[in-house]
Amino acid sequence: MPPRTLSRSGTEPLWRQLQRELLTRLDAGEFADRFPGELALVDEYGVSRHTVRQALRQLRADGVIVAERGRQPRVAPPAEIAQPMGALYSLFASVEAAGLSQHSVVRTFDVRADALVAERLDLEASTPLIYLERLRLAGDEPLALDRVWLPADLAKPLLRADFSHTGLYAELARRTGVKLDHGREEVHAVIPTAAERAQLSCAHDVAAFAINRLSHARGRPVEWRHTLVRGDRFALTAEFSAAGYRLLGRA
């Protein structure tokens, strides 16, 4: 079979053309069973190995393929759980909506003081806080490490709840009447520490989303949350059109 043709007369680099060609073939489902190796692509497109490596490097960076040293590249599996950006999300609800069973291992659930968190919640440094730390599992595999702080004067009834299989926001509304109505969230891509990787059962080359959230109810800050989510099992989604960019949400 003659090599597939890439343009050598235009201004677009060969590696970029190859990347676009591979994306087109991926979208058509051509590599569902097996993604070609570097040498196979060199022969198929009549380009250098350096050109192939540049194209594959960008596909790896974009999360399209997974390629480890000394191993054949493979198509990255789709995220099991997708979370709309801009929503006051419940990870419990997102996992259930994805059709996966979920439960949590409660690591710590107590009342304590934390001066830094209290400052974020506009409270005095010594104010008692409810602290809940859980390992969240989806389909019996670790998904996230979740740490939440709430003012004890508001959230103390939560101490009677069993958080091994229930959502925090549902219990907060049921037991205290408090419903979160707005907040601010920051998402960072991070490399988990060795201890976090061990808890999440993820490989050394798997990144994670670090999500920090400050939530309010009726004008009062009531929740500070830090969640570390496996990047290979979770995706954040948004929607855009010619009319503009719209963050997705849920009622």
Care to describe what's here?
Residues 8-78 form the HTH gntR-type domain. It holds the Pfam family UTRA. This is GntR family transcriptional regulator. Keywords: DNA-binding, Transcription, Transcription regulation. With 251 residues, the protein is an alpha+beta fold. Helices cover 27% and strands 32% of the residues. It contains eight helices and twelve strands. It has helices at 14-27, 38-45, 49-61, 91-97, 115-120, 152-155, 168-176, 194-200; strands spanning 65-66, 74-75, 81-84, 102-112, 129-138, 141-151, 182-190, 208-217, 220-230, 234-237, 239-241, 244-246. The strands form four sheets. The protein has a six-stranded antiparallel β-sheet. Strand 5 (129-138) and strand 6 (141-151) form a beta hairpin. Helix 1 crosses helix 3 and helix 2 (38-45) crosses helix 3 (49-61). The model is unreliable at 247-251 (pLDDT under 50).
Search tags:
251 residues; alpha+beta; two-stranded antiparallel sheet; 8 helices; elongated; GntR family transcriptional regulator; transcription; Bact_HTH_transcr_reg
